[in-house]
Design a protein that fits this description.
transmembrane; transmembrane helix; 4 helices; coiled coil; Methane Monooxygenase Hydroxylase, Chain G, domain 1; mainly alpha; golgi apparatus; membrane
């Protein structure tokens, strides 16, 4: 069974973190646009949360970049097609551009925002919602691609399972045939044992018959001997 591609695991983490960072980024932009004080507690908290998320996202993104650089040198060595390498390169480029945009907004001072032309919060939210929807479409596309790759991996794993089951079935058939052969041999042994047992029984019957005949012969001989002895004694008594 094949191991999961580490790139796909990190990719899932990056996309998940990116998805959670977008609402934080939108919230930060909204708060910054509504305040003139850089020390605003709400702004500080939003900035801190966004910086922490971007830091985590950047670390995972660096791993993806290094992975793409490695496989670009010899993709076939890693069992990848050129289309997959290009997809991974585009992914890290797009995510990197989005992260860089967040960093630039973090570096911009609150005072740089033009006060007279502040948009209506409702319009700003609508624009951000549209941007988020675009990001959601991108994420949905990436997620669909990831699901397709996972399904392909699962198909390969199922093929491996089917091959293993086929081998087990072949072994079971071989064992069944061997057991059938052994059953035939056991039947032959039982038949032979029955024949030998019958012969032994006949032999014992004959031996017992012979013994009984011998016993009868000796009994008759002893009786005859006793009669002869009695007759002899009577003759001797009469004569004497």
């Amino acid at each position: 069974m094949e191991h999961a591609d580490p790139f796909l695991q990190v990719q899932a983490d990056v996309l998940s973190t990116l998805q959670s960072s977008r609402p934080l980024f939108s919230s930060y932009l909204r708060i910054r646009s509504l305040t003139k004080n850089p020390s605003n507690p709400e702004l500080k908290q939003a900035r801190s949360e966004l910086e922490s998320t971007i830091s985590e996202l950047s670390a995972d993104l660096d791993d993806l970049v290094e992975s793409v650089r490695a496989i670009e040198q010899d993709p076939y060595r890693f069992g990848l097609e050129l289309e997959e390498v290009q997809r991974r390169r585009k992914l890290v480029d797009d995510v990197g551009a989005e992260v860089e945009k967040m960093r630039e907004e973090l570096q911009a001072a609150v005072s740089h925002a033009p006060e007279p032309d502040l948009p209506n919060p409702t319009e700003f939210d609508a624009a951000l919602d549209e941007e988020e929807r675009g990001g959601d479409d991108y994420y949905a596309s990436m997620e669909q691609q990831r699901q397709s790759e996972l399904m392909h991996e699962q198909d390969e794993q199922l093929d491996g399972v089917f091959r293993t089951v086929g081998n087990l079935r072949q072994q079971a058939n071989d064992m069944g045939r061997e057991l059938e052969d052994q059953a035939v041999m056991i039947d032959e042994v039982d038949t032979l044992a029955d024949r030998v047992g019958g012969k032994l029984t006949n032999g014992m019957t004959r031996i017992r018959h012979i013994v009984r005949k011998n016993e009868d012969t000796w009994s008759s001989f002893c009786i005859a001997a006793l009669i002869f002895a009695l007759v002899l004694l009577l003759i001797l008594v009469i004569v004497l």
